[in-house]
Amino acid sequence: MTLAVVTGGESGIGAACAVRLAQAGADVVITYHQDKEAAEGVIARVKAEGRSGQAVQCDVADEASVKTLFDAAMTLGTPRWLVNSAGLNMTGTPFAQLDAGAFDRLVATDLRGPFLTCREFVRRLGRAKGRIVNISSIHESAPRPGGAAYDAAKGGLVQLTRTLALELAPQGIAVNSVAPGMILTPMNQAALDDPKELEKREAAIPWGRAGTAEEVADAVAFLLSANADYITGANLTIDGALSLTVAQGA
Predict the structure, then answer these.
(1) Residue 155 near residue 144, CB atoms below 8 Å
(2) Which of 14, 21, 114, 170 is found 20 to 30 A from 89 (Cα to Cα)?
């Protein structure tokens, strides 16, 4: 039986991944930071698919908290799949006004967090094979003003993914990432709340619409599956060609 750990599983892409992996036959442990009620709702959906599930409060930036997470997961078995979805969104603060503490908090969650969870996952695997998918962003390579910390963290995450893929391939541990564009989750709450804002943002997407968390989850499920056995070190962009528009009009 496959056991998956999904960080940030209480909402958005993480929640969609938890349910999709349950549909693929995995038992699922999710993390949440504060919203226990939302996390329990996701676990209820996991159990509705006939799988076991558990929600664990965790600060992925904290080494002791990550160890506690995996201690809890090990009560269900040894995790074979890891999805790193926990993250903070960009602040929008201009670089010159960006507080160093805010920079550190975002990088700690979006980059240090995956480092810690990946390391603990690999340590718990021992000699067993496993698969990791890190949720990055198109902003890993397509920067936006006000995103200094976020863009730097996501750029670091894709390089962490590639480095781990090289290092862990001999152990049979595959490491890939996905880079979503505009996805209709709470990170794009303004567009969810305002149809005019949604229309404006979707006008910039060549495919003509924003993506859904379920579409990202489908890609994650594929990268974790046996059908993706020969794929490691890849970064799959899921953005309706938005990131290809950077040089248009130049």
Answers:
(1) no
(2) 21
Neighbours of 194 (CB within 10 A): 12
Tokens, residue 20: 């999709």
150 is catalytic: yes
Residues 210 and 191: beta-carbon distance below 8 Å: yes
Name the band, by pLDDT with cuts 50, 70 and 90, for residue 186: confident
Residue with the bigger pLDDT between 61 and 250: it is 61
Answer whether residue 189 shows pLDDT above 90: no
Structural domains of the chain, ranges and CATH numbers in brackets: 3-240 (3.40.50.720)
Q: What is the model's pLDDT at position 250? A: 64
Active-site residue identified among 113, 131, 150, 176? 150
DSSP string, 151-210: HHHHHHHHHHHHHHHHHHGGGTEEEEEEEE-SBSSGGGHHHHH-HHHHHHHHTT-TTSS-
Q: Quote the pLDDT of residue 90.
A: 87
**Residue 174 CA: distances (Å) to CA of 11, 80, 170, 191:** 25, 11, 10, 35
3-state secondary structure of 14: helix
